[in-house]
Amino acid sequence: xxxxxxTRVVGKLAAxxxxxxxxxxxxxxxxxxxxxxxxxxxxxxLDALPVELTDExxxxxxxxxxxxxxxxxxxxxxxxxxxxSDRIADVMEQALVDIEDARFHQxxxxxxxxxxxxxxxNVAAGSVREGGSTLTQQLVxxxxxxxxxxxxxxxAATEQDGQAxxxxxxxxxxxxxxxxxxxxxxxxxxxxxxxxxxxxxxYGVQAAAQTYFSVDAADLSLPQAAMLAGLVQSPANDDPxxxxxxxxxxxxxxxxxxxxxxxxxxxxxxxxxxxxxxxxPGVSPPNGCIDAAIGGFFCAYVHQHLVQTLGIDQTTLxxxxxxxQTTLRPDMQAxxxxxxxxxxAMGDPLAGMYTAVEPGTGHVLAxxxxxxxxCDGAGCESVVLNTAYSQGSGSTYKVFTAAAALEEGYSQYYxxxxxxxxxxxxxxxxxxxxxxxxxxxxxxxxxxxKALYMSSNTYFLAxxxxxxxxxxxxxxxxxxxxxxxxxxxxxxxAENRGSFTLGAEATSPLDLASxxxxxxxxxxxxxxxxxxxxxxxxxxxxxxxxxxxxxxxSCTEEAIPAGVASTMNQMLRKDVEPGHSGQTxxxxxxxxxxIAGKTGTSQSNFSVAFVGYTPQYxxxxxxxxxxxxxxxxxxxxxxxxxxxxxxxxxxLGAQEAVPFPPADPTVQNGNTRVVPSCGSVEDCQQxxxxxxxxxxxxxxxxxxxxxxxxxxxxxxxxRAVIDQTVSIRVSNGSSYVPAAPAPQAPxxxxxxxxxxxxxxxxxxxxxxxxxxxxxxxxx
Length: 779
Known about the structure:
It is built from 26 helices and 26 strands. By secondary structure, the protein is an alpha+beta fold. The strands form ten sheets. It has a five-stranded antiparallel beta sheet with strand order 7-6-21-20-19, sandwiched between helices.
């Protein structure tokens, strides 16, 4: 030993003797080495335990769990997983006690005899061979250091020099005695093993066992336990990964101590001592959303919800040992991830966002993007695009106008004839009337249902004209769950933006899915939530001000009338399910299931969207460039509907179909009446007036004789609005060709006049109808 080192060690010996004297002078003699009876009779001499020392176990990492209980990630500042005593190998407890505090089970928290003996041993060896403080004293010190809230508190907990150092050790000693009065030896040892730092970021024996050996603390072997027990005094110096030689020496010291105390045999000692340390490093637990096992963007949304909505601070998240129960469906998340990548490569300039929620609860089930969350480089993104307001979502907003019109009494059969382009009578574009055209060839005359699934721009601007203002559609959107963050709803109404029905407003994919889920839930709106519960480290609901921070789902029944919702559902099924000419969302269809939906494309094709839903699921897809304006190419019925199909097909294919409720006849029919049948012009005029319609006779081209009654438009049995003009269609004979005279019968001897076997009376060519799509709108 060098003279300088010997001087330092002798100095420590002198200081320890002084401290021992101080402890005795501090009236602690009754407790030192005694049975504890005097301590129990002299409780007033002991310091009251601070709250930091009354917790039975240190808090561990906070866990974020999916809906099925699987792990998404952890939030933590320190890698610690507290375990109970029965989950720590006996040999680990024995090895620690033998090297750190051999008289642990005999003393009452202080052991002057053991402290002096350890110091003499260490002086003789020239290095630390035995611990000086008892395990209980070490637990007090480490707990106070770890729970310190300020630099001053940390300094006070570690002060070594002068009177402050002596005062710290005196308080530490008194607290150790009080701790032993409060807890059993097993509880103290378990707390110590869960608290102490073992190096490489591992706090506590479970994290250490995983870090160095990839095993649980319950499965530690003798050589592994000896190595870990030797680490607590100097984790960096004796690190078995970076300093294996030092680790071997220290491990062998522990083994020697265990042999000397009779806790291992000579054979066990000799089989291990002198051999290299063997480690099998494990992987550190995931920390934060960047390490999420699945759903990184969903995880980031959860984190925002915990901090911003529930008010849980980051310190509590990192150190509180919370269990965060989320709504994530791993199967839906995996299906959504793959669906997006089927259409858009990872890191493509175009981002595809698939966002799914559960109608009737608001539970967010999945958030997929063709990006990796939180990393740096190509394909990485730190913004939760599923909740971001960027581009508009096009004709998906026509749903809000249609629902508002139904609520005001307009029938789904409400028919409008428009020009293309259509010039508004109500809305302005600067100093000029607002006008729109269709993206394709459309019938001039459409009812609301056909205009919706064919996505006619001109019809819906005319329907907005009929409503007189955008207020009803905007308020309908809000009631369904839309949030207008970029431009407040009141401003949209004040400016009377006729473009509202065409979806020009910056839109969040989550908002879209949430709004359409209100339809799927027959009018019940539920605020989106990614969290169903937050439990404290004891497994009880985390509370603030005496109430749980998570209070359950936030839903509003009849946010919109149930009849309006059920009628909209039946109308929107025709945009997806087969058999409806001109529909725009057919690519989303999953055979055997009832699916409603709507496509959308923003101005200049800067984004495309599709929102589809069943009674159980509502999901939106938006495709856009989040960095700059870019023509996405195609319409919402292309990339958007395709991603939706690929995401939902595995989910729907694994379960039985669930039907939508039927439409509400009262809402369907609204302010309409049935067009009566009639047999003559005069009869039609009288019948139509009695029914509340305005008859008008129109002579039209026809191959029937002039004056022939062809019917009405709308036809008999259809529905029309009261006071609506109904056309009585009469042939003008322009294409009428009189029938040729019948041929004269031939003489009897001219033959039989019969026909061949393969001729038929009245045979006519069976020609397919020419009722094609007639174009489509912006979808």
